[in-house]
Amino acid sequence: MMNTFNIFTLFPDMFKALDYGILAIATTKGIININTVNIREYSTDKHKKVDDYPYGGGFGMLMMCQPVFDAIQSYPKSHTIYMSPKGNVLTQTRAMELSKIKDINILCGHYEGIDQRIIDSLVDEEISCGDYILSGGEIPAMVLIDCVSRLIDGVLPQPQSYLDESHTDNLLECHQYTRPEIYNQINVPSILLSGHHKNIEEFRLAQSIYLTFIKRPDMLMKRKISKKELKIFAIYYPELKDDIIKFVE
Ligand code: SAH
Fold this sequence. Notes:
Oligomer: single chain
Radius of gyration: 23 Å
CATH superfamily of the largest domain: SPOUT methyltransferase, trefoil knot domain
Order of helices and strands: EHEEEHEHEHEHEEHHHH
Strand content: 15-25%
Bound molecules: S-adenosyl-L-homocysteine
Shape: elongated
């Protein structure tokens, strides 16, 4: 069964940006279907108008009800997301949950936003891509689709390869290296070349904890580390053992 994203937008061509790499392959394989719907085509106005002035005054224009209602309601009812700076900020956890939903509608706003009655009547969830304002919901929608799609079974070439990625377990990923072994006189850490899988795994875990501690202690606070992980960490970063103890569950 295919996962379908119906995107309601004034700028369908922007979504050509998703036609690359892993998402393009997943589309060709029929695992995902990224379908754009041009809201303007649903406008009953003779000039195909889609926006109007806000009641009560204020800056800018708002997307009006009629074209958006008619566009969304001409598709089967499914979980409908409005990309909005007022929504919950997208997380890896929410993306994982959304990857289990077969059909998702995504509404992209423009101008100063959309008439509230659209949100009240048709939207199940508002999602933000961060605490800043963009000029339209298209780029946030692409962020959402990219992030959710790679969690859908069959999309990533190596299933489960997202499991040790940054944010999957509130732990940042360890440093990664590829060939050659020495570049500009800089060596790859020798342990990665040792072939000793258990040591490599422990080294990577210790480094992940270290990086999360330095860059995102807030994540480590949520995750906590076990006594066993503390022991492993202390082998590689003995000088930081005392600093990390407060994260032990
Ligand atoms: N006046 C609105 C912002 C409108 S920005 C407000 O202050 O809340 C125009 C459109 O861009 C929005 O309708 C929304 O769809 C999209 N957008 C802007 N920033 C966004 C963000 N951080 N996350 C998701 N969508 C965003």
